[in-house]
Amino acid sequence: MKSDRFRKKYVRAALNGFFYGALLLMGPLIAFVPPAFSRWIAEGVGRVVFWVARPARRAAMENFDIVFPSMPYRRRLIILRKFFVGLTAMPFETMYYVRHLPQLRVLRIAGRHHLDEALREGRGVICVVAHLGNFPLLHLKLGSLGYKIHTLMRPMRNPMVDNYLHRLRDRAGVGTVYSRPRREAVERILKLLRENCLVSVPMDHDFREDGVMVEFFGRPASTAVGALVLAQRSRAKIIPMFIAAGPDGRPCVHVYPAVEPEPAATKEEAVVLTAGRINKIFEEWIREYPWEWAWIHRRWGSAGAAGRP
After folding, report:
1. Residues linked to residue 152 through DSSP beta bridges, in sequence order
2. How many CA atoms lie within 13 A of 74 on its CB side?
């Protein structure tokens, strides 16, 4: 048993070193590929990934059954192919802009005044985001405009790759808050909000046993509400935002008006009601830009029997 554990440990360390070395080698090369050319590469590679990634395609089709139950199968395939092309292009585009920060000026931002109005109150902003489009570019764009932006994320399993990407984000003006240990994350977020910073929190993934069941496309889904609790404690504004490519192919950051807390008998009820409103906003985005959403994630995985008709 001990020998098996040691073997697994060394294999994991070797794989971590391999992927880190590959990133060190490929990262700078990828950064020289302009977005227009990376899209051309992604068109071919993304279609191959689409056909090879059968488990991911199966998970996506299950999600389509919930989100667009009456959508024809052929239309679903078209959306999924487009999603995989975008997913393939994401690392190319992100690495390019990280190393060519002045080029971020080509990205547009709509509704910026909502963000500025919220910051004028001086209590910071919780930016609720979804895994929609190339969302790391959203953070890079806000950082390039001088906003003090930090993003909440889980530590990666590969610490070497994690540290490398952390340094790149720092260089681009995007701070990182790790969700573990939880107590430290809470204290850090509250401190950043007191300093009138932006904290970006994704809320569209299955939060398993740590989440609260909130309706999403008519089904209960485990939803992360911790950021909403912190916004309640700090009186920070909650601003939904997402990024998607416009008709000309250029990404645009869309900033929505602040979501005001829902009146309720208790603070807990208010948080759940606010999470429900945010889920409704996410639904609007997904209906408008279906090819941009992360279909391959099992959003309703924790719902169990509660999520079945």
Report:
1. 177
2. 0
